[in-house]
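User: I'm writing a tutorial on reading structure tokens. Could you give me a worked example: one chain, its sequence, then its tokens, then a sentence or two explaining what the tokens reveal?
Assistant: Sure. Here is the example chain.
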Amino acid sequence: MNRRAMAPTHPVRSRLLALLNSAPLALLLTLGACGQGAGSAAVERPPLEGAAIGGDFTLVDKAGKPVRWADFAGKYRIVYFGYTFCPDVCPLDLQHIMQGYHLFARDHAALARDIVPLFITVDPQRDTPTVMGEYSANFGPELIGLTGTPESVAAAGKAFAVYAARRPGATPGSYLMDHSVTAFLMGRDGKPIALLPAEKDGKAVAAELARWVR
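And here are its predicted structure tokens:
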């Protein structure tokens, strides 16, 4: 993980609440509790149930092979947007996500095989298929890095209500990406379930996976 921007940055932690205008009021009331432990004995409803998050896209993997959202039908999906030159938040979040995935897999091997972790770039200019493949491999062979044209990447980001904007770096010609930092857990049907607490640690991510992956 030696790809870094020229200066440190702290990307916008999440603009999700401002973007989920179509979600029911219950969603807004439960988002704050995401990642905190189970509630009552009653059947829990997914915190992101009904939210307008997700949708089809066409990107490419490390080999340049087209990948569509529909390719993962029937699988749970962890979706995280970031970029390989991110100096701080992205690599730490990805580390926590994959640590959590591996902890979950240790106790639930069969279910873990039905989870697909996806890392989608917000910086397609620098994040080529090869770069994404090499970077993603640092966190585990299960993590699939996806990139594409600026238009296809922007379309994927829009589908997931992800904010991203370029800003100048510390030296002439360099730049960083401000972006929302959110790890989505999506269900077998491709619909949103919950946010994973990637900002915490692997144990917290594993606990949230155990809460919803069945």
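What the tokens reveal: The chain has one domain: 16-31+47-166+174-212. Residues 19 and 166 are 19 Å apart (CA to CA).
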